[in-house]
Design goal:
Helix content is 29%, strand content 34%. By secondary structure, the protein is of the alpha+beta class. A hairpin with a 2-residue loop joins strand 8 (201-211) and strand 9 (214-222). It is globular, with a radius of gyration of 20 Å.
């Protein structure tokens, strides 16, 4: 399946993914080789949450498409998922998801032919700064403070989990899971994390990093009590400014196109545009209450 280069993991990022608790390379990675040992296809299986939210992520070399390799790999994903769902709570709905570039017609057909249904669209948005971003205007009582990992990590994790409960498909993560994803990322840079405080409470944050030559907004959110006060756009402008000072004019992020918190409107207001669209497919493996 075709992809967007910015959404393809680097070797270092993939290595960190494979260090997730419960992931077993020998059990969860499937590869297809030619008789002379050339790798022409692969698929990875991930338990995203509670053994019920599962993910398949793979590709087939362009020269070997149309030979049934993709379908064979997806069959292996289903087999692997059937074993995993036995560990899920008895009344929980179990499903497996796969994300593809919306321009990938062969990928659409492959997933549909293997029992997957389109459920959601996601966007990659970006901005190319032509000049220094506008000065930020923080709401009254809000201040930005440097992120100190040992002192602030737990509070940011709690704020992160709470802020994203409004988002489709979200689930709470343990501090260990969250820490591994954030601090284990090879591009983690604490000086690019913008944390907005209201006294001793976190009002919002923008967790950023450099990735593949551009600035990347990994996670940005404002907690409910502080929404609608201009904090979101202030965090965007401050983030833009930090990247611009460091010599980066192109900044990107990924977002659910149907985000209920109005994030896409905020990003457009900040000057970002849709640079790529992705389709999320899902295959139900077991019906349940949720």
């Amino acid at each position: 399946m075709e992809g967007d280069s910015l959404f393809v993991l680097t070797a270092e990022e993939l290595a960190n993914e494979w260090k997730n608790e419960g992931f077993n390379v020998e059990r969860d990675v499937f590869v297809v080789e030619t008789s002379d040992g050339r790798l022409v296809g692969s698929e990875e299986f991930y338990n995203e949450s509670g053994h019920y939210k599962l993910k398949a992520d793979g590709c087939v070399h362009p020269e070997f498409r149309g030979l049934g390799i993709g379908s064979s790999l997806l069959e292996k994903m289903t087999e692997r998922a059937q074993a995993e769902l036995k560990l899920a709570a008895p009344n929980v709905r179990v499903f497996i998801q796969s994300l593809i570039n919306n321009k990938d017609e062969a990928g659409h057909n492959l997933l549909k032919n293997n029992g997957y249904s389109l459920v959601r669209y996601f966007w990659r948005m970006e901005i190319k700064l032509q000049e220094t971003p506008p000065a930020i205007n923080l709401p009254s009582g809000i201040e930005l403070r440097p992120f100190i990992k040992d002192e602030h990590a737990v509070a940011v994790w709690q704020a992160d989990d709470e802020a994203f409960r409004d988002h489709w498909g979200s689930h709470d993560r343990t501090f260990q899971e969250w820490s591994h994803a954030k601090f284990g990322n090879p591009n983690f840079d604490p000086t690019l994390w913008m944390i907005a405080w209201d006294g001793n409470e976190i009002a919002g944050f923008s967790q950023n990093r450099f990735r593949k030559g551009i600035g990347w907004i990994g996670t940005i959110a404002v907690r409910r009590p502080w929404r609608g006060k201009g904090l979101g756009i202030a965090l965007m402008h401050h983030t833009f400014g930090e990247f611009y000072k460091r010599g980066t004019a192109i900044i990107g992020l990924g977002v659910d196109s149907a985000n209920l918190t109005g994030a896409t409107r905020l990003y457009e207001r900040a000057g970002m545009y849709v640079a790529g669209e992705f389709s999320l497919y899902e295959k139900e493996l077991r019906m349940g209450e949720s």
